[in-house]
Amino acid sequence: xxxxxxxxxxxxxxxxxxxxxxxxxxxxxxxxxxxxxxxxxxxxxxxxxxxxxxxxxxxxxxxxxxxxxxxxxxxxxxxxxxxxxxxxxxxxxxxxxxxxxxxxx
Length: 105
What we know:
mainly beta
């Protein structure tokens, strides 16, 4: 197993995926985000939804926003819909995936 440079536990299962930050050679860089798993339909992919607040200076108030991200799901991390996960930014894994799941909260 490889140290990914973050304070997270290693998954108990082992996988042979090249695009796994723990067992492969995918490097973590950039931001760490939290989100809720909305869908697991595509293979090795999880769709997560991030909710955040955006300040609007004109009205001096915050508005609620949400964004869906496609993230890579390694085989060693087992997820189901509704889980809260931590994702980390990485190099582009595919056309739409630029993040990878590193931990289930």
